[in-house]
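Notes from hallway chat w/ T.B., transcribed later so I don't forget. T.B. wanted the structure written out for a chain they're using in a teaching module, and asked if we could keep both sequence and structure tokens in one place. Agreed to drop them here.
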Amino acid sequence: QLQLVESGGGLVQPGGSLRLSCAASGFTLDYYAIGWFRQAPGKEREGVSCINSSGGSTNYAAPVKGRFTISRDNAKNTVYLQMNSLKPEDTAVYYCATTIYNWEGLPCQALGSWGQGTQVTVSL
């Protein structure tokens, strides 16, 4: 069965950094585009970033552009999200999911195979 496990979240001060990991089991990750999404309490889930199956193309939502970097290591069956210059508004539970990288001009469309999420809190 398809399984994704997120890790690497925690408490960090504004301006700090975290690296999130999305590890796959039960399937070969290099067949899939993978996206990162986040959901704050009482808010709708929003897309953050995605990467195509080979790692040759990436996409970022405007609020994180220039601060976050998505990458993948298919040999380790893992996708990463490096988060720099973190802001309080980045506080959320972060999820990864299998994704359509670009569907007729719409980027980072989730297919529904979600992990359990990892909490990121940015606060003094």
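Follow-up for T.B.: The longest strand covers residues 92-103. Might be a good example for the class.
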